[in-house]
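Below: protein 1.
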Amino acid sequence: MRRLVRALGAATVIVLAGTAGAAGTTGAAGAAWAADPAADGFTIEDERITESSGLAASRAHPGVYWTHNDSDDGPYVYAIDGRTGETVATVTLAGITPRDVEAVSVGPDGDVYVGDIGDNFGGRWPEVWIYRFAEPERLADQAVEATRHTVRYADGPRDAESLAVHPVTGRVYIVSKHRDGGALYAGPEKLPASGAATFTRVADIGLWATDAAFSPDGTRLAVRGYFGGTMYAWEDGRPRELGRLTVPVQRQGESVTFTPDGRTLLYGTEGERSPVRPMPLTEEQLPESAREEEPGRAGGDETGEGAGDEAGDRKPDTAGDDATGDGDGGGEGSTLGFVLALGAGAALLLALRRSKRRGGGSS
């Protein structure tokens, strides 16, 4: 019987340890996630939003995310409550007739930038547009005046679905979309009030990009595609590749943004009641400000064990391009917990059989 008790105790410790290590939303990590109400993801409930193509965290309204439909919807931008997934405001861009809206970003000036930059003909349109309006102080259905900026590329027209405004410099960047990989284009330091803004190629992006986003501190650039993504360190106005992103399997992956604390990427997709899935970041992919704030870093070096304990609690779901599920958070944790539970059950069964063979053993 003592062996059975010891096996039971060991199995309990294994299961509890596995659960704590795999959950990813408990302990210190859970406290960090709680800082943003959307860190667990949400579902866009508005039946009007069936082709959500862009996503951006509001600067003026914590917990609110801006999105919009693809083409054929009209000049509308929607403010979504990250707690409930409900629309809390519909903003109409007065005097705007959009063609193919694909991206949204919020700049350090407090303005929302909407990218009418899609070109399904692969470069037919000689110019595209960016619409800019100030984030409303009060979230309610309203019409706003938007500035329309004309965009041209220095090396000719192209298709694009990714627009990101740097949160420190305010410079606007576009990532072109191409099956064999696109490129990062930088706009002028400031978009001109009149005339065309010329965007210049500054780096290759080896991805069929559908969206991009800067981290809140501006030290990371995330670029996603339909089936994958890449994280870049942002250094002197240029990207340095850090590695592959964990991207959830989605119906048609279209958007990405950082939560305001920089610790989590939120991935959106098209479709009715489309889910926005969270993927927490760890180690080098964390923005610099988030890495500096990690409590576990005090006991370790830049790459090592002090950070590893904290990062381990926040290990992301690895259900990326190769996964067969829907990419919802916690795929790896739940699998690990299941394996550990099976192992614990086997240990208990073995101990019980041995105990019966010995006639119950000593008490």
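Below: protein 2.
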Amino acid sequence: MTYKFRVALRPSWVLESGPDEAPQSLQDLLRLLSAIDASGNIAGACKECELSYRHAWGVLRRFEGLFGTALLITNRRQGTKLSAFAQRLLWANRRIEARLMPTLDSLASELQKELEKLLPETVPYLRLHASHGFAVQTLMQHMNAREPGLELRYRTAIEALAALERHECDLAGFQIPMGEFERPILTRYAQWLSSDDYLLIHLAIRDTGLFVMPGNPKQIHGMADLARPDVRFVNRQIGSSTRLLVELMLERAGISTSAVQGYETNEFTHMAIAAHIASGMADTGVGVQTAAGRFGLDFVPLVRERYFFAIRRTSLDTPAMQDLLKILRGEEYLAYVGQLPGYDTGDTGRIVTLKEAFGV
């Protein structure tokens, strides 16, 4: 069956100027500012946004009046640039999207499946609970309009594995660092992973490290630098595997978490960490290389991680799981994930036992 629709949810800004004034949507303005920032001129931005020149200027002037400040700075030699206020507005929008999109994608996936249950010819689908990652996000994109259906809920790795144990999902996504930090993090997962009950699908290997501003102006080269008073850090949320990894790396470096400025500042995704730093709110944070590249940040590699889907042994031979494996092993998916910075697909789609993966 080919789905006739796809549910998508997106964040939307509105500006409320008073009880007697209708709320003003900022969507056209934010699209226009982003295009001006990329092209350096209004004409190019109008073409990109499919807006007339007159309408674009109308949008800009209207919001300049509402905000009470200029949004553009025009220079004949340098073209058109965003004002400091417009730049901050645009970065705020990027941070919001990076922070909210995984949650909205999860909600959209749930809603999609709820609506499809009411349609004729409903086919069985798989339930995936997983920590956020680009290989997972790409899988959802490749599953659109295909069978089997896949319902995604973003969770921390521990939440995903606990849900698998309770039979609330069919696949649980989690990551494990390679090397010295593998054992302590695997110990954290151990109560939810029984070698008798589960198999692992290898999804990808990814590079994790520190995000820093272009050119690394503060010369941040390792975890020890996080104790410096001039370095501001942004962390992942409590319960996330990345936060646990940060704790272990700081412990190895002999750094107390209390010595790290910004340790209690939390973001929920790699992209949100990158947006936080790129907007100037922090100097560094830990995440996967792909997110750093998408926000123009430099990357200091620290560890490599293996990302797995845990499944019940009894589900491996089901038609839905076999169809999913075909997609994972297909040329289209492998090519897309393989070109992501810091990702390795050499073992993608391989089935292994816990003993084969970790020697336990």
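The chain has a mean pLDDT of 89.
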